[in-house]
TrEMBL record:
<dbReference type="Pfam" id="PF13568">
    <property type="entry name" value="OMP_b-brl_2"/>
</dbReference>
<dbReference type="InterPro" id="IPR011250">
    <property type="entry name" value="OMP/PagP_B-barrel"/>
</dbReference>
<protein>
    <submittedName>
        <fullName>Outer membrane protein beta-barrel domain-containing protein</fullName>
    </submittedName>
</protein>
<dbReference type="InterPro" id="IPR025665">
    <property type="entry name" value="Beta-barrel_OMP_2"/>
</dbReference>
<keyword id="KW-0732">Signal</keyword>
<feature type="signal peptide">
    <location>
        <begin position="1"/>
        <end position="18"/>
    </location>
</feature>
<feature type="domain" description="Outer membrane protein beta-barrel">
    <location>
        <begin position="39"/>
        <end position="204"/>
    </location>
</feature>
């Protein structure tokens, strides 16, 4: 339902700007929002999708933990501060829903082979946006920076562990992010699709109480890897 909802919002937005979209790549386009990027501060919102994974480092060689990724949903706000003509500082707080399923092929019982790690993230990225020269109604850009993430679904305070089928992760994580996108200046608003990689820094795992646990005993560190696809409207 979340994906369908986001799809209909995007379709409605593009239908209302159909003529503007046709003119984006024409030979001599009408320039939309010519002075938009001269604003000191402006705001927006984004909708999008995500795919979260884990990167594992092991203490000893053995069978890898397999991660089944799912497609999650993103929604949030954008605040943009113009530092100079080609550089902006961006703050993009958002809510991210996702889930990862961990599979342990070597365990005998089916109930022990799979662990679901659901997450509801509040994501706080602070990014620098490096824009190219605008050509007509199109302007590509690169983006990168640091972020902090709060997992509202974290069970970090639980005393139960995988022996009770509960995989524990830390509540707060730190990341660095890099990506690229393109600003499209439509008739009524600026639309910016982008793709970004998120790379967790530090170990997010809370080990089981048993140091020889078959689920966490061989994990040296576990950190987030994610791909975010956002559609931003200003």
């Amino acid at each position: 339902m979340k994906k369908i909802f986001a799809f209909f919002i995007l379709v409605s937005a593009f239908q209302s700007n159909a003529q503007g979209i046709k003119g984006l790549f024409s030979k001599d386009p009408i320039i939309n929002h010519e002075n938009f990027d001269k604003q000191r501060v402006y705001w927006g919102y984004f909708l999008g999708f995500n795919s979260y994974d884990y990167k594992f480092d092991y203490k000893n060689m053995g069978t890898d933990i397999l991660v089944d990724k799912t497609t999650g949903f993103n929604v949030g706000l954008v605040g943009d501060l113009r530092l100079q003509e080609y550089i902006n500082l961006r703050f993009e707080p958002g809510l991210y829903y996702t889930q990862r399923n961990l599979n342990y092929p070597d365990l005998e019982k089916p109930v022990d082979r799979k662990r679901e790690v659901g997450a509801t993230y509040i994501h706080f990225p602070l990014l620098l946006k490096f824009s190219a020269l605008r050509t007509g109604n199109v302007r590509p850009y690169l983006v990168g920076g640091l972020s902090t993430t709060l997992n509202l679904a974290s069970n970090s305070k639980s005393l139960d562990d995988n022996a009770q089928q509960r995989f524990r992760v830390k509540q707060w994580t730190k990341n660095y992010e890099v990506g690229f996108g393109i600003d499209l200046y439509l008739e009524y608003f600026k639309f910016s699709p982008s793709i970004r990689g998120v790379f967790g820094m530090g170990n997010e795992l809370i080990p089981d109480n048993d140091p020889n646990s078959p689920w966490t005993g061989n994990i040296k560190s576990m950190s987030t890897r994610a791909i975010l696809i956002n559609f931003t409207f200003h």
